[in-house]
Specification:
β1 and β2 form a beta hairpin. The strands form 3 sheets. Strands 3, 4, 5, 6, 7, 14 and 15 form a 7-stranded mixed sheet that branches. The relative contact order is 0.16. This protein is α/β, with parallel strands linked by helices and 319 residues long. It is built from 10 helices and 15 strands.
Length: 319
């Protein structure tokens, strides 16, 4: 089968398009014929060596959608989607024509999603879902999403709305504010960090119950915008990993910080999440992904380079 594979890390030059043996599922596994696979920034960082626990050689790729062609009889021919920490790190991933994974590590693909659409959602939507669930977002929760125009941020807005939250998006540019408002979300333009508390309180009197910072730069500033007993969820940090936190203000509010890391969840755990929110696509309450750029696997190395150079395109490998 055709696959992208790397045998060393540190440079994208290590990534190759190769012919390799088609994987054979072990007991309790399925073989999925990949129809579409998402390219995430973490896939690029993996080849660059940012995850020292990755075993080599390795086929990268976490998100996929396809058809079960071998495994338990009940799953044969089923259209499925999946994601998980092991793919591309401890086991071969989805940037290949076939993939083997636990039979419990795939979820039925929502009928309203194409293969490419399904493959675009795994990491961003499971990350957002985990953040909202673990920070207690529900009916009436005042939720601020910082970086609401990104993949995870936009997923958090959509999922928060479904969960009944009062949703506010925060973005850098005025035109991004207008885009969010056109989508039906209240939005603010981020200014100076010291102004964030006043901006939030102008919309949510008394502060936000949950602030989800998807950027890694607003944790300290977010404390001023937090309501009593509020939670700040984070999925990133500055390059050096250090943040000066106003601990006095945080504990006086009874606030807490919730770290969100999608690499804590294996395929089986992610499959549970995919089933939990996947039904909302078929019910018509979650928007279908748009603006995807479908690319053949033969152009995969160039796509990795584009993402590494800062491209914001959501690239999907199609087979």
């Amino acid at each position: 089968m055709k696959a992208l594979q790397f045998s060393a890390t540190g440079n994208l030059a290590a990534l190759r398009l190769v012919d390799t043996a088609t994987p054979v599922p072990a007991a309790g596994e399925v073989r999925v014929q990949i129809k579409a696979a998402g390219l995430n920034p973490s896939d690029v960082k993996n080849v660059l060596g940012r995850f020292p626990y990755t075993t080599l050689p390795r086929i990268p790729g976490r998100d996929f959608a396809g058809v079960v062609v071998e495994g338990p009889q009940a799953l044969l021919g089923q259209e499925v989607w999946g994601t998980g920490r092991n793919l591309g790190f401890f086991a071969d991933g989805s940037h290949a024509e076939y993939l083997t994974v636990s039979a419990k590590g795939v979820a039925p693909k929502p009928a309203q999603l194409s293969f490419a659409q399904a493959a675009s959602l795994g990491v961003p939507y499971t990350t957002a879902w985990d953040a909202l669930q673990r920070s207690g977002v529900g009916q009436g929760t005042r939720l601020l999403v910082i970086g609401a125009n990104g993949a995870v941020g936009s997923a958090a807005l959509a999922l928060g709305k479904i969960l009944g939250a009062q949703v506010l998006g925060a973005v850098r540019k005025a035109d991004q504010v207008q885009v969010l408002r056109a989508q039906g979300f209240e939005a603010i333009a981020l200014g100076e960090p010291q102004d964030l508390g006043a901006q939030v309180n102008a919309v949510f009197k008394g502060g936000a119950d949950v602030i989800f910072d998807t950027t890694g730069f607003w944790l300290s500033a977010a404390v001023a915008g937090l309501a009593p007993f509020g939670r700040i969820a984070i999925i990133a940090a500055p390059v050096d990993g250090q943040v000066q936190l106003p601990a006095l203000a945080l504990y006086r509010k009874g606030g807490s910080v919730v770290g969100i890391n999608s690499l804590l969840y294996n395929c089986e755990q992610c499959a549970v999440m995919l089933e939990q929110f996947g039904r909302f696509f078929d019910e018509g309450s979650l928007p279908l992904p748009t603006g995807l750029r479908e690319v053949a696997l033969a152009d995969g190395i160039r796509s990795y380079e584009e993402v590494n150079s800062g491209s914001a395109d959501k690239i999907i490998f199609v087979f």
